[in-house]
Amino acid sequence: xxxxxxxxxxxxxxxxxxxxxxxxxxxxxxxxxxxxxxxxxxxxxxxxxxxxxxxxxxxxxxxxxxxxxxxxxxxxxxxxxxxxxxxxxxxxxxxxxxxxxxxxxxxxxxxxxxxxxxxxxxxxxxxxxxxxxxxxxxxxxxxxxxxxxxxxxxxxxxxxxxxxxxxxxxxxxxxxxxxxxxxxxxxxxxxxxxxxxxxxxxxxxxxxxxxxxxxxxxxxxxxxxxxxxxxxxxxxxxxxxxxxxxxxxxxxxxxx
Length: 256
Ligand SMILES: C[S@@+](CC[C@H](N)C(=O)[O-])C[C@H]1O[C@@H](n2cnc3c(N)ncnc32)[C@H](O)[C@@H]1O
Known about the structure:
Elements: H1 2-10, H2 16-20, H3 23-36, H4 38-58, E1 64-68, H5 78-84, E2 87-92, H6 97-104, E3 109-113, H7 120-124, E4 142-148, H8 156-164, H9 170-189, E5 194-207, E6 212-216, E7 229-236, E8 245-255
Parallel strand pairs: 1-2, 1-4, 2-3, 4-5
Antiparallel strand pairs: 5-6, 5-8, 7-8
Helix pairs in contact: 3-4, 8-9
The chain binds S-adenosylmethionine (SAM).
């Protein structure tokens, strides 16, 4: 708890609403969970890194690589990217100090705090309009774009925020979440370079005996794009949240 409190107090946030809406708290909680669940999360991180290496091999150019949802950087082969590309642009709403320190070791790696939905400022003031993101679309040097364990996360905090402020009904929340996800997909498809999407496809909950008890749809009913590669990620091992239920997510990789 002390570590979490200290991070919250000392992490600089260029985007003020990232702290107020709860994104910073969520990133800190995720970092703590990653430490606790190291044994089951590391294979997922290794799979992500291997998929990024594959995406690099598919990419024709080596000028700039743009990563959305860089977060902790644990799922990024950073040294490899820094060696392969002229510039590595890592984008997230918040970066904890560990990510900042790691990025600082490379001259050609930049961290950019940016809202990839370009809609959060509106959500913060309880508007529900979803913008069509534009950032970097005019940058001809972007040869590779990676959306990294991000797309299914995009609606979560905005929907929770708007519901808690009485700015949405449940039905409107569902529509808004879908619009945010479609908006990100549409955004990715507009880049001229190679694009790689790494995302949860679905989650399955099991009881202690290994019997399936529930299925989780992080895509809010949208059909995820067809993945060319998949793996299982034990997101919530037994004992992490409860001693009765574990959750395994199925992650997919798509190239556009
Ligand atoms: C599941 S985490 C994945 C992060 C990183 N790839 C990792 O595994 O540590 C999702 C990330 O998306 C970021 N995020 C959520 N909404 C965002 C937005 N609107 N713009 C930019 N980043 C956002 C969060 O801050 C978080 O770091």
